[in-house]
Design goal:
The chain is built from no helices and 5 strands. By secondary structure, the protein is mainly β. It has one domain (2-54). It has a 3-stranded antiparallel sheet, with no helix packed on it. A two-stranded antiparallel ribbon has the order 3-4. A hairpin with a 6-residue loop joins strand 3 and strand 4 (38-42). The relative contact order is 0.33. The structure holds zinc ion.
Length: 64
């Protein structure tokens, strides 16, 4: 399992990214739940999970 920390380039939210190469995910994309910027597009060949760990400091954006 691979672990990475990802930061949204737009709003600064922090995410923990988990990648399981043995699993199979679904095609699609993961968008920042705060500002809806696409953080990653999935090809479906592996399972990727994101978890929000740092709330952005920018005001005026909906947090969810
Ligand atoms: Zn964002």
């Amino acid at each position: 399992m691979k672990k990475d920390d990802v930061t949204c380039p737009r709003c600064g939210a922090g995410f923990r990214r988990l990648e399981l190469s043995s699993g199979s995910g679904s095609k699609g994309e993961y968008r920042c739940p705060v500002c809806e910027t696409t953080l990653e597009q999935f090809g479906g060949d592996k399972l990727v999970a994101y978890r929000l760990t740092i709330q952005p400091s920018i005001r005026g954006l909906k947090t969810g």
